[in-house]
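Re-running the complex after MR caught last week's input typo. The corrected sequence lines follow. Everything else is unchanged.
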Amino acid sequence: DAKTTQPNSMESNEEEPVHLPCNHSTISGTDYIHWYRQLPSQGPEYVIHGLTSNVNNRMASLAIAEDRKSSTLILHRATLRDAAVYYCILRDLNSGGSNYKLTFGKGTLLTVNP
Amino acid sequence: NAGVTQTPKFQVLKTGQSMTLQCAQDMNHNSMYWYRQDPGMGLRLIYYSASEGTTDKGEVPNGYNVSRLNKREFSLRLESAAPSQTSVYFCASSVRRNTEAFFGQGTRLTVV
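Corrected-run output:
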């Protein structure tokens, strides 16, 4: 399975942008890049996903490198409520394989300072 | 919109006792999952159900059984609880097995 590498922790100040990096050098052509986050004492929450092009939604933006070996989750204005563990996950959207696993690594713990 | 609902939220069991964790989703999703999360570790898949009537083992199925009662409900049963099963259990659902998943709030289980 293609793996991802994320920093263990990052810090940001409130109302500033945050760029959370993820390396996935062994990504395959059919792997989508998914991001989830887990707030304290809650279940994981889907944030965004993409394949090749940059993606935007109400929560965040996803910037994908041209070679797809890395991506960056962008929170445009961090709030205290964005403090969470952020997980970068690869999911093969082909119908075969063990893609149901949704394998979580340890993610990046984001601390937001007031 | 309730999403994914898990019951109970907290439970303490004695070693050897049995219990069933309940999970229900109201999003008409086909796939449902059970995960456990231990301190300092990521979520690990226990069992998975692609659709009503089907279940598959995940990474850590030993000591657990599941039932996909209908499209909405997916229960996880511990037949004889052990301290090693102390964990936070999350249920999740998705439209299909390879689309984004929605998670419940978790059940904190302690086995003493």
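None of the earlier attempt is carried over here. Chain B has a mean pLDDT of 93. The interface with chain A takes residues 4, 31, 33, 40-43, 45, 48, 50, 56, 58-59, 90, 92, 97-106 of chain B (CB under 8 Å).
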